[in-house]
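Narrative progress, year one. The postdoctoral researcher (J.K.) led the effort to move from monomer predictions toward full complexes, under supervision of the PI. The following entry was the first complex the group processed end to end, covering 625 residues in total.
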Amino acid sequence: MAIPLKYNIGNISSRRVSTLMSVLGIGIVIAVMLSMMALSNGVNSAIISTGSKDNLMIMRDGSDTELDSWVDKAKFQVLRTLPGIQKDAQGQPVISPEIIIVFKLPKKDNPKGSNVNVRGVTPMGFEMRPYLKVIEGRMFRPGVNEVIVSRRIRDRFVGCNVGDSFHFGPQDWNVVGIFDGAGTSFDSEIWTDVGYLGSVRKRESYSTVVIRPADHDAATSIKAAVDNDNRLKLQAKSEYQYYDEQTSGLVGIKVLVGFVTFFMVIGATLGAMNTMFTAVASRTRELATLRALGFKRRAILMTVVIESAFVSLLGGLAGVLLALPVNLISTGTTNFKTFSEVAFNFNMGPAVALRGILLAVVAGVIGGLLPAISAARLPITRALREI
Amino acid sequence: METLVEIHDVRKVYKRDQFEIPVLNGITLGVPRGDFLALMGPSGSGKTTLLNLIAGIDRPTSGRILVDGQEVSSYSETALASWRARHVGFIFQMYNLIPVLNAAENVELPLLLTKLNRKQRKQHVENALAIVGLADRMTHYPRQLSGGQEQRVAIARAIVTDPTILVADEPTGDLDAKNADETLDLLQRLNAEFEKTIVMVTHDPKAAGRAKHALHLDKGVLAEGQYGYEAEPAVVRT
Ligand SMILES: Nc1ncnc2c1ncn2[C@@H]1O[C@H](COP(=O)(O)OP(=O)(O)O)[C@@H](O)[C@H]1O
Ligand SMILES: [Mg+2]
């Protein structure tokens, strides 16, 4: 039989201060790691889930983002008549001309304001994103200064509740509804009627045009027709591909998260190692006594590793507790490709928390291994002579 | 009388850096079953080293050691550990109790290496603590006990598996006169009543006087030359 667990628990609780320090140290490391993972989780779900593989996005050739793209109304008429576009129940082609304009609006925590994408659409724009739901108030009417605001923008910007109005340029804009974008990047936007937005902001052209091809072959032929028509000077890519490329601006965050996680795990490992080296050094004679009584080297190794894993487990739990408040943070970052806000939640679900705890335990096992081996290797006779 | 421990021309050399330090220089010795033997000698004479060899926590550089007919000097590390668990009871100068375990749990430790179930272990622990007169201290932790009591718990731990031999290294070295006396009373009783074979290292003549026999080590050789078997020993009492 192995050395009883009470031996480990007793030792952990007998060196209370040192245990607390180790638990807190590992806890902070794990908390930072968890926050990073939560952040990456939030950014990912905000951006990647936006694009649909069924929709084709048409932009000016050479533009990387919707904001520096334009499509003349004449070109829109050409696109509209391309063969292969899906028809809706009324026989109309499923195609959505859209205008994206950046408004600078005051934030609740920053009166100077921040950039928000305002998207002008036709009803077809909603049909092409069926997951978008108005959850409060009503839909805007065409031809007037009415907008609907995403829930997250409502929460973080001033004057964005239903019934409020905000000022941008010479216009006042009335908020008539709140929508939920199901975690897509539309959750960081304000939507309004494309005709009205274009006329008051004096835009002669659309920013982009979104097309729903009838099927896969049609998608290929439409893309080829757009890309190869030198008079149009437009490019077509799937909406999914577009948003996927947008994430690359935020790849930095993901790389950073990976980097930090890696070093944090090493930090936790070294923390556990240091704790156990100290713990084992002060117990040399005790461990030699256990071996004299007949406990094998393997039992000594196990008891040290178990103790290390246990301390780290406590550290992991402390880390989850410390990191819990970040879950309440809903924040934004500037997408440096579009210079507009990307809103997202720190998203530490149970899966992320469990991963943090698991990594803590793994760090404990690895960190405990070296002290455990050195403890198990001690010659009994020499260790018994230690005071 | 039957010889329990046979030591044949045992040498022990420690290596430190390049130097070889000879500690035991050809010890031949037999300990009869049921003996209570005191090993005496000046500090550094090799008493502890010899005791460790008998107890199987160290191996000789050359020579053979047999305990109860088994040649323990040829055992592997793992085999020795199992052998110790079954056959050797350890008593240390500093008691070496585990501070975070209470008296009963300390005494139970060697039983965890046997096939006994929980109930049987509890029975054995109670018996052992009753023999050393500490049945009422089961749940006390080492820090709640006096030195004398700690040593008695340690003795209970040493006898709980009913080992073949008890080894004690300066068991009274850390005790005052009264507690030393009580500890020696207990060892004498274990020898007389329970017929335990005991080998005790001590540099205290009074402690050695409580043993049946005493041998003197000096610079790694026995003052008496041979002892215990073959030639009838010259029985030395101090
Ligand atoms: N592990 C070791 N390495 C080197 N020398 C040792 C070791 N153990 C004991 N010695 C030396 O062996 C000699 C005898 O030690 P020991 O058996 O403890 O003597 P005693 O118990 O009679 O005082 C001492 O000189 C001691 O320094
Ligand atoms: Mg000694």
